[in-house]
Amino acid sequence: WARVADVFKSNPRVLFCVMNEPNNMATESWVSAANEAIRRIRGTGAVNTIAVPGNAWSGAHSWASNWYGTPNAQAMLQIVDSGNNLVFEVHQYLDAYSSGTTSECISPTIGATTNAIGLAASPNTVLVFIVKSRLHRLQRILLPSLKRLMPSCPQ
Predict the structure, then answer these.
(1) For residues 23 and 106, what is the distance between their CA atoms, to the nearest angstrom?
(2) pLDDT recorded at residue 129
(3) I want to staple 44 with a disulfide (CB 3.0 to 4.6 A). Which of 5, 64, 70, 140 is the partner?
(4) Between β-strands 125-130 and 117-122, what pairing exists: parallel, antiparallel or unpaired?
(5) Contact (Cβ atoms closer than 8 angstroms) between residue 68 and residue 55
(6) How far is the CA of 80 from the CAs of 26, 34, 35, 50, 106, in angstroms?
(7) What is the spatial distance between Cα 117 and Cα 106, in angstroms, rounded to a whole number?
(8) Phi-psi label, residue 110: left if phi above 0, alpha if psi -120 to 50, beta otherwise
(9) pTM for the whole thing?
(10) Is residue 57 within 8 Å of residue 65, measured between CB atoms?
């Protein structure tokens, strides 16, 4: 990552995505690897935004689940960025398996019926994209994590 960051650090249009859909590992191992990548990127002087996915294919639908080990909603709070310029990257595919392996959507009204939530957070901004307005689910699952990550986040 240091070599890549050194080449692109002067280009503000470049966003560093440290990996695509990590899986099949302990979430804590992924957090350690992501923190090391971030440390190496920042070590070059790069101030670019860094996108960090969660474990288990970074599924928005499973961000707070534990079927893959420690939930991303808990473990990703240990991500450290000295540049304070990162986003959490989540994916949500709209097929029956939330995998994107088929072209069939769960239903023709998927946009109105799914619980999928996407989240991007930085020190001064929280952007939440909700496919369906399930605010109680958002408050119960994501907001406690955001509050710990960003104490100044409004209620």
Answers:
(1) 24
(2) 41
(3) 5
(4) antiparallel
(5) yes
(6) 18, 9, 6, 11, 36
(7) 16
(8) alpha
(9) 0.70
(10) no
Residue 2: other Cβ atoms inside 10 A = 14
Distance, in Å, from the CA atom of 146 to the CA atom of 104, rounded to the nearest integer, reads 33
| DSSP designation for 121 | E
Q: Among the residues of the chain, which ranges form H helices?
A: 2-8, 27-43, 72-75, 110-113, 135-141, 143-149
User: Which tokens sit at 93?
Assistant: 């595919």
Q: If we measure between CA atoms, which residue out of 142, 34, 146, 145 comes closest to residue 81?
A: 34
Of residues 63, 49, 62, 56, the one with CA closest to residue 18? 49
* Pairing assessment for the beta strands 125-130 and 16-17 based on DSSP bridges: unpaired
Give tens-digit pLDDT for 33-84. 999 999 999 999 999 999 999 999 988 888 889 999 999 999 999 999 999 9
Q: Does the pLDDT value for residue 105 go beyond 80?
A: no
